[in-house]
Amino acid sequence: MSRKYDNKTISFCPEGRLRQVEYALESIRNGNSVIGIKTNSGIVLASDKSMSNTLGENNIYSDRIFLIDNHIFCVTTGAGPDAHILINHARLQTQLYKQIYQDLIPVKKLVNVLCDIKQQFTQSGGKRPYGTSFVFGGWDSFFGFQLFRTDPSGNYSGWKAVAIGINSILNQSILNEEAKNCLDIYSAIGTIVKIYSKKISKINLSQYIDLVTLRRDDLNNILYHRFNDEEIDSLYMKV
Amino acid sequence: MSRKYDNKTISFCPEGRLRQVEYALESIRNGNSVIGIKTNSGIVLASDKSMSNTLGENNIYSDRIFLIDNHIFCVTTGAGPDAHILINHARLQTQLYKQIYQDLIPVKKLVNVLCDIKQQFTQSGGKRPYGTSFVFGGWDSFFGFQLFRTDPSGNYSGWKAVAIGINSILNQSILNEEAKNCLDIYSAIGTIVKIYSKKISKINLSQYIDLVTLRRDDLNNILYHRFNDEEIDSLYMKV
Amino acid sequence: MSRKYDNKTISFCPEGRLRQVEYALESIRNGNSVIGIKTNSGIVLASDKSMSNTLGENNIYSDRIFLIDNHIFCVTTGAGPDAHILINHARLQTQLYKQIYQDLIPVKKLVNVLCDIKQQFTQSGGKRPYGTSFVFGGWDSFFGFQLFRTDPSGNYSGWKAVAIGINSILNQSILNEEAKNCLDIYSAIGTIVKIYSKKISKINLSQYIDLVTLRRDDLNNILYHRFNDEEIDSLYMKV
Amino acid sequence: MSRKYDNKTISFCPEGRLRQVEYALESIRNGNSVIGIKTNSGIVLASDKSMSNTLGENNIYSDRIFLIDNHIFCVTTGAGPDAHILINHARLQTQLYKQIYQDLIPVKKLVNVLCDIKQQFTQSGGKRPYGTSFVFGGWDSFFGFQLFRTDPSGNYSGWKAVAIGINSILNQSILNEEAKNCLDIYSAIGTIVKIYSKKISKINLSQYIDLVTLRRDDLNNILYHRFNDEEIDSLYMKV
Amino acid sequence: MSRKYDNKTISFCPEGRLRQVEYALESIRNGNSVIGIKTNSGIVLASDKSMSNTLGENNIYSDRIFLIDNHIFCVTTGAGPDAHILINHARLQTQLYKQIYQDLIPVKKLVNVLCDIKQQFTQSGGKRPYGTSFVFGGWDSFFGFQLFRTDPSGNYSGWKAVAIGINSILNQSILNEEAKNCLDIYSAIGTIVKIYSKKISKINLSQYIDLVTLRRDDLNNILYHRFNDEEIDSLYMKV
Amino acid sequence: MSRKYDNKTISFCPEGRLRQVEYALESIRNGNSVIGIKTNSGIVLASDKSMSNTLGENNIYSDRIFLIDNHIFCVTTGAGPDAHILINHARLQTQLYKQIYQDLIPVKKLVNVLCDIKQQFTQSGGKRPYGTSFVFGGWDSFFGFQLFRTDPSGNYSGWKAVAIGINSILNQSILNEEAKNCLDIYSAIGTIVKIYSKKISKINLSQYIDLVTLRRDDLNNILYHRFNDEEIDSLYMKV
Amino acid sequence: MSRKYDNKTISFCPEGRLRQVEYALESIRNGNSVIGIKTNSGIVLASDKSMSNTLGENNIYSDRIFLIDNHIFCVTTGAGPDAHILINHARLQTQLYKQIYQDLIPVKKLVNVLCDIKQQFTQSGGKRPYGTSFVFGGWDSFFGFQLFRTDPSGNYSGWKAVAIGINSILNQSILNEEAKNCLDIYSAIGTIVKIYSKKISKINLSQYIDLVTLRRDDLNNILYHRFNDEEIDSLYMKV
């Protein structure tokens, strides 16, 4: 009976739920696995690579990790093309904010703007929700390092450590236990490598995951770093 | 037979009702529990936290309580992203009013404007109603402290004490008996803590509810205060 | 078979009727009860309060009675949010007329404009009819005191005494007999109190009905008066 | 099988007919009865009053007879609110014509413009036909007195004597025999009174019908006259 | 199975046909009978009158024959209101052409423009085809006298003698034999009268048909003439 | 099961095909037969006449063959009114090109532009594909004589000899064998006459086909020639 | 049950997938076979010709290979007309970039822009996805030679060697083994010829495939070369 309510974005089903949004969430549960951990010294985000063929060149052209500005970056899961559109919005908003206020956009402000866009696509007819979730990591002078996840519905929430995409329930439960031990960025990397290496061959880890960090150096500069293959492979050694 | 009338916002069913609006109400009945009490000395609003995971950082980033202006704030239940959009409208209207009339917007005026927006989404095609209810608390020089609830249909009503969201029927019936004893803001806080503590572990109350007050000090300034964790936990001691 | 014609505003059913408009009327038959009586010395309008909870503060914030201008007011039944939108239109038209013609808008002119708006929502696709009926009372120099009712279809008609909303058929039949005895505004109030007191406890009448009058004083000023609780309760004494 | 073609304005059914237009016509066959007779000395139009309650004040506020300009008036049957919208168009066109050509609009020209508007609502999607028919009476210097009927389809036709609305078939057949005897405006009034008095109590005829005439006086002025109650009741005496 | 393709203007059925256009053609097959004959000395067009009642005044107000400009006229069958709209377009285009080129619009150019409009209504959604066919007669300096028929699909074709509307198949077959004998405009009129008089009483022919001619006089002026009742009745005498 | 995918232009069926486009192609397979042959000395295009009645004057007013510019012409099959619209586009583009570049539009460029228009009508909602195919013949200084066919989908392809419309499969197979013998324009005409004369009476060939050629004279001028009846009939003599 | 979700572009099915996009992909799996190989010295792209008739002139007018700018070209498979539209966009963007930045557009930037356009047609109502995939080959100063494939969903990915269209699974698996041996552009051509020659007669290879290369000469100029028939045929000799 509920079939009448699920193929239109704009109508509630009798239980008061929006089916299209729930179906969009379903597409994310099968997307690439993303894990983010926030520590006092910085943020670590990782995603497994959706490499289906050995000839693909995902290394250089990863479309899962985006640097929005020097102090904000994100990892996406779900529909890649949808994510691109939202990233375009995010980068534009970031620059507009800089132009108007002569300051960096606060992390939560950016998440807020993006989620308002997502909400529009759950309420107006003739559209479908964006089938993509993000984990945003960033730093601003108001709240320091912050980690947010956003959903196709336009919901967002702050986290200490979060996992989305495939196996997210399992990964999140591991995080629940491990996150308290992640005192600094290096132990956080170790936790992430541990989670991923349970499912994939351990030797050439760099073929399976992307890894990025955002941290402050001693001069309080915010530094974004994307790990190259050698760095990732050497990580495994350390663990 | 009635199934034909419920998946379009814009049509009445034969009994003269709008099904989509009723379904939107249903989503609110399962939302977070919100309780508001108006006393002579001020207003208390509380909401339980929809914390699903211990790693979530809902404290800093609560998206349930919004300060519209210094003299008006609100708590929402139901679809969070929908609430954000309406809050944007509310804040804009508040500033526009200030700019035009050089005065604070009266509480009822603001509620009125928001509900007219809500109504539009129940009458025009290609849209769905906003799936969110608010409890507004505020003060103005015309009617003093005021407490309003608004519904997805665009209906609003003034209250002495009101409960919406999950368990609202039970909570409202408790309020019906207790509200007459809430002579000042402190006894109102006590009543609210009593209602919530029936359902949750009593010790770390601050993990489960948010609490805000609006009151006048001796100089007749309107003061908005959001309770931090220590304050909330200590509340329980007092009760 | 007729089910195909009723969920679209814009199509006639084979019997030449607009089902959506009839369903909207149905929502009014279950709305609050409104009674209006026109006498030579003025107009009395009353509505029962839709008070569902003792904590509600309907007194101050009644959304059923609206003063459009000093010489025109109305009582509504049916969907409150729809009524608000139309009241906004009415007040705007009233002021526009004043600005253009430097005169008060005639009662029928205002009713006319509102009903043209209502008609639009019964003819264009992607909309639903306004689910609200009004009883307008007013005075102008052309026809003196006038009493109109309007329907969701955009129909309006002039009356000496009229009842809409729940129990309207019974109330109207009582009016048919009593209206001829309503020689002045005081006997009209008595008739209205008599009708309502049949259904509700007689003592605290003020909790159940709102009552407003429009009359001329000896200097021919048009005076609008909304009865407060004491006045309403004392009314019952007199009856 | 034909059910697929009737709930959309814009599509032909396999027999090449527009069902929505036919259903709109159906609503007119149940409307108030309108009779018009054209004589050499003027035009008489009459309509029965749709008075459902003795308290209604249909006399002053009849919404069935409209004076478009000094030389053109009309009587409508079917959906009253639809008629109002078209009357607004008609009055606007009449004044526009006056402004542009410094002359009175010819009767047929006005009918033409209105019917083009009606046609639009039978061809474009998202609309329904206007559910109203008119009998227009008027005088211009080209063709003298003229009597037109218009239909929801946008069809119009000239007549010597015409009946629309309820009982139109019977009334038209009476007219077919009687119209040739209507040499002047007075015998035409007599014929109309005779037709109506067959169905209603004869004594207070004024409670049941409205009657208007358009005629030329000896100075060739075009005079519009709406009969008041006494005049109508006295008419019956004469018959 | 083909029922899915016929209630939308804009889609082909599997056989590659547009059902809506075919249904519109059906409405024309039941319209008034139109006959046109082209001779060297001019063009004759005739239509039977759709007189349903003896009181109707179709003579003066025929809505079947339209003079577009001094050198082009047409007769329509099918939906009258649709024809009016297209005639408005035709007259506008005719004047625009005159204004731009300082010359009379060629007959085929006008037919072309009208048919392009018709085509639009068979391709865009939310519209239905114009349910009307025309027979255009005209003269221009390029091709002399010309006779065109147009269809709801936007098709048009040139003819020596053509019949559309009810009985068109029979009438066309008669024309196929008789047309070669129509050497001048007078024999063409005789042929037309002969065809119509088979179906209607012969005496008062003028009550049943309209007849117009376009011819050149000895000074090569193009003369349009509409026959009045006496002329039509006398025609029968001659036949 | 596939029935759900064919009555909307804009959706793919599960096999990845667009049904509406295929149905539009079907309408072309039943259209008039068009044959085109390209030789070194020029291009010959022919179409059978869709003459249904001996009184029709298709000669002068053929709507199958269009001269776009002096160096490009085309023959159409399928829905005539659709073709007219596209021809309007083609002529406009041709003149725009001339105005901008001071040169003749290349044949392929024109075909390209037209097919982009066709494509739009297969992708946007609320439209249907153009139900018409063209064979374009033309000459430009880049590629000399060229022969293109276009389809409702927006596909086009270059050919040495091509047949579309009814019997196109048979005709194309004949062309496959004969085309290699068409060394010059005269033998190409012979081949075309041979193909058509198999199906129609041979004597008055001019009543059944239209024939046009595009060739270069000795001064390298591009000459378009439409054969009149005598020329066509004499062609048969030669064959 | 899933049938409800597949004929609307804009809705997710319960598994979180977009059926329309998957159906569009299906149309590509049956399109012409495209193979691309990237080597250190350049890129080779090939497509089989969709030649259905020996009279077709696909050589000159291939609509499968497009040169976007001197340093970027692409081969398409699937719906040709859709590809044309996107190519128009690509060329426009390329020139715009040049105008704004006075530099060649980077390959990935162009792919990015095109895929954002593709994404729009998977999210907005009233549209269908573009039914076409591309293999882009190009060179820029950032990443040297690059090979991308794009999908109707708006997804794109970088490759060393890629096969799309019919037999793409088989071809890709061959490439997986052979690509590592493609050290330079000549061995890449050999691999491609080997793959195609398994399915087609080996002698006149030029009738079956198109072949283009992009390489750098000794002066570091980027050279685009389309092989003519002789070159292709001679290729086979070498293999």
Automatic annotation (TrEMBL), chains A, B, C, D, E, F, G:
Keyword Disulfide bond: no
Key words, A-Z: Proteasome
This protein's record includes keyword Translocase: no
One of the GO BP terms on file: ubiquitin-dependent protein catabolic process
Any Pfam family the entry gives: Proteasome
Cellular component annotations (GO), alphabetically ordered: proteasome core complex, alpha-subunit complex
Highest taxon above the source species: Eukaryota
Boundaries of every Proteasome alpha-type subunits domain copy: 5-27
Family in the record: Belongs to the peptidase T1A family.
PANTHER family with a match to the protein in the record: PROTEASOME SUBUNIT ALPHA/BETA
Designated name of the protein: Proteasome alpha-type subunits domain-containing protein
